[in-house]
Amino acid sequence: MNDFLKSEKRKVRYEFLNLRDRIDPILASAYSNMIFARVKKLPVYEKAKTVMFYLSYGSEVVTDGMISSAIDEGKSVVVPAIQNPGDGEMCAIKILKIEDAYQSVYGIRQPEINQEDAVSKEDIDLVFVPGIAFDYEGYRTGYGKGYFDRWLKGFSPEKTIGLAYDFQITDKVPAGKYDMPVGSVVTEKRIIQVKKN
Q1: What is the pTM of this model?
Q2: CA 181, CA 135: separation in Å to the nearest integer?
């Protein structure tokens, strides 16, 4: 990634993370419930048998209730996990309850990695993707480590949904050739279907 792109991403990350970090936790919880109410009406979610949620961190859209609800509905739920923080690789691990994610990598919760609980990308019907900012083409700014972008390579964008508060949506985020767009973004106010180029 060139220095200009890095610098532009840093600016967006700083601006939107500051915005997001200022959200009142009670409001964040209410907005997260509104976001999930929209998600639940999506045919892609209704049909999905195996769903990958991220485990919310900091001021991200809160996913704990979503995960518990999906498990109660009988969906198979997987979450991201990192075995070796240095290698940039992420895997998907099945959990049976939110408490299974008791370990921490980069301060983010994750379950213990057991190979029998690992689920391959091909077996996942829908992936929820976190982000600091999203644009109308589905591109996102994350924390800059690239785990999700590497993992999403080759995965169908139609099976990916970004979760965000509405103020995290912007006209354009800086994106490079390794950045993977999501197929739609759900906020507390709307569902943004990404236009295919």
Answers
A1: 0.95
A2: 9
